[in-house]
Amino acid sequence: MLSILLTATVSFVSVNRAKTNDNYKSKQAYLTASSTLESFINQIQTDTAPTNDPTAKAQQKKAIDNLKKLASANSGKGTTTTVSYNGGDGKSDNIGTTKITVAQEGTSVANIVVTCETTYLGKTEKVAAHISTQSVTKPAEYTNTIELVGNGGAGYDNLNVIGDMAGINNTTGKVYRFTNNTSIYGSYLMYGSLEVSTQSLIMLKPSLVDEKQGSTVTISENLDVSNEFHINSTMARADGYNYVNIGQKLSTSNHMDVGSSGFDVDLFCCEANIGGNDYTQYGNFYVYKGAGAYNGDATFGANGQTINGSLYVEGDLNVTKSLKVTGSVYVTGTITGKDKIVCQASNIHEGAVLSKAGRDAKPQIPVSADAYVYYPEDFFMSNDTNVTTISDEYQAFYDGKNTKTFNTFASDWTNVDYTLTELIDLTGTGAKTPVTSRYKLRITSSCTWAKDLSFNDYGKGSRILVDVSDSSGDIVIRLQNGLSLDSSWSPTIVVRNRSTIIDTTTGDRKYNCYFVSDSGSAITLNGIDSVTGKSKHSGSSACNYNFSGLKIFDYDTYVRMYDADTLNNTKGNPGAPQSSFVLNITSVDVAGSYRPSNSSIIFLFAENTTLSATNNSFFQGSFYSPEAMVNIATSGLSGLNVTDSAGKIMSGVQCCAVGVVIANSFGNANTAFYVYTKPSTTSVMQNAKGGKDDSAFGYTLDRYDHY
Length: 707
Description:
The protein is mostly beta strands.
């Protein structure tokens, strides 16, 4: 590590020295110091680049351990190296020196400051980099708008998901049900069986995580379609995606469409029984043998059945009604009803050998999804700073160190009837205009939302600002158990995040706002299970929350979503967004739209917590509630316009949530849309999942300083 420092310094001095003259002594000193520091930081970044290679991971750990050794030397004062530069006559110290110091920042070796101080011809400049080291599980990736973790099945009524959806608990026998225009605009992965009984749609769209990647449907057991199911795509099959993979049996009894002209979607299953009315597919149909009794047999007996592609059957094929196939038919076993196949005779192959290669290879159903290791209880109670940053704030509610409530702030006149004016780029052109918003109440630090705040005094539907800053750090808001508000009293909460420490990779702000369950201080963390690799816990108190009409917004979205008249009110339902506002949830710029940052609003609900939100409630933020019930039975926020990466706008969406919802079980009702955005990469959710073999040894560059 010391040799890296020396090499970095000398290499940059040799470049800068030639450009220097006596009129730029200070500038040269600054350039040398900053270039040396940046070189050193770049070297750390190279040494700790993300990798899955075990040898490279060991080198990651070694690099960070070496850095910590340098910083912890001399009781944390660190290690200093001095480099001298020769003048033209060969004498040292003729031009100047650079002192490079690696030291602890504060009492923890996890926080390090690297300082470079250069003196050049009598002028001295000093720069520093502040680093947080990490030795944590692989950062979590959240790709699903709604993700169910529990063992039970679920029924979805008028559910609309913009983004991917999953049921990740690999327990056999679960049954999920789609009814009444349930739609998914993305990919779908579920362990269990799916029953479809009324005009449901899966529209395969490019991934919202990576628009170059296509989408898929994976169902580990059976798909049973009793009344109209459409699986379509917005992209051509040539990209290698666009398929439906069913681990066991496909059964249809009334109208199923797969793919469309120019947008093929292939379908794989281990047994097929196509009956009732209408089966139409653009793409290939594959029936391959599976585990147990699934022999790769297929029966086609629907009134009107067309495959615009080829049919592959590894078992026996039975055709009882006319089946049109525009490509070829390949059957390993026998064909019954060959005369009912409308296809060129030369294209029908009985006793065929199936290659199962290339496009014809059956996609793998993953044995399990990426498992969650840590739970909200770990974030509340753990002393491991590599796991959580909020346990001190959480436990302060129970040891008497933090008795603040919303009412505490309401008793301080500086936080009541609060007006905020800020210069904001509303058009995305760089031109900033002053925007004024008003709030009945302002929250500036961690506190409890208790039952003591009188909305009789502060008005129906009060607007409340939660103001996250460098001085506040993470703001943790505990929801007092039993908190219940009907629609006439539920406030609109706006979370503004202006913390200035930025993650240089993602652009996310260091501090976040957490709404947490009142799960008590009797929680016990029982260590990591040696078999599952998951954290174990006990002692969570059950919590129940009931809200009607509650709305929670990110400030930067809120001030763009509504006009000046609405922003000027301190209370009341803000209503529908401006018709000109378009929310862009992709990573692609779309003219006239607004793309929010990763969400810094995080809801952490521990085991046995139930949230019920009704009557046009709306949440902009991410729920991490893997052992809790989230029930958003509501039509949400009306009139939201949402765009996809192709620039297409879905107008007038009834939106219940913008973020991700991870829950043990989930309930919905009415026409409800859930829209994908990632949680902040600096939040504790980044430590929630991964595995013991997925450790990442790295660092976060918090900031540079120039003294």
